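Weekly puzzle thread! Below is a chain. First person to post its structure in token form gets bragging rights.
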Amino acid sequence: MYRLLNINEKNLEYIVLESADGNSKAKLCLSQGGRIHQLVFNTIEVIERTEPSIYRRNYDSAILFPFANRVKNGEYKFNDVSYILDCNEDGRNNALHGLVYDKMFECISEKLTSDFASITLRYKNDGKSKGFPFKYDIELHYKLSKNEISLTVNICNMGKKIFPFTLGWHPYFKSKNLQESSLNFKSNIMFEVDKYQIPFRIIDFNETMPFQLKDKKLDTGYKLESNQVEFLTPEYQIKIKSNSNENYLQLYTPSESNSIAIEPMTGATDSFNNTIGLQTLSPNTNYNVEWKIIFKNSTTKTTNSLN
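Winning reply:
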């Protein structure tokens, strides 16, 4: 039977979902936007624990809503009304990574069986956020099994006005050796950015797959031609799948660790201004997206596909 543990560490609330043998587990931080603090499959740490005090610097596994990545200068216009968000990116004067990454989520349901553990977390916004005065509920449904975890994000517009949004996820995946790791994804275009990491031009992307990560420094966005991305490491392989109709990808390699952020998104960076992938949600309606991580041990030489 799968287990659920409630933990308080350094004044932060966590819930741990864990298999009976302890070999697979997901540690979720309710105090920091309901994010995955640690993810382990078959004793292999896929999403590495990081010090919670640096979370505001790296946003690891943050849920990105109502916008994914950046809004230039925190300014946008919607239905002829101008809005100004708080700019929380030092040195670039952008609004960064949405508005729920630091919110407290509550557990509203759980289910434990011999095959999986699932949990639903919720945050209710009162519609008084600076620059986004729209009332909404957001629910995160996690389901963990031996070699898979899914995250379904459900947004409900609880107010009386339509609002714009994009949705994203910011997990960092650990590799024993990033220099010997690679990615598989289908894309024909990438977004060229200015010095503030704001896209200003779409250019052709013609990289041969698998996309080798050796000596790569990335903070780059792509429009995907499929709904999946594969990450291939010497120790394990994962497939990240989405059920979104349109799929975008942001890749980021931090300088201080042997990891890579593989960020699925429903729209591009600065979508509140460039409208690439931007959607709207009417009052009393819902939107949901599912992201799924499928794990496989690398018991043989790394291949180009998990299929």
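Puzzle host: Confirmed. Bonus trivia for everyone else. Confidence is low (pLDDT under 50) at residues 300-307.
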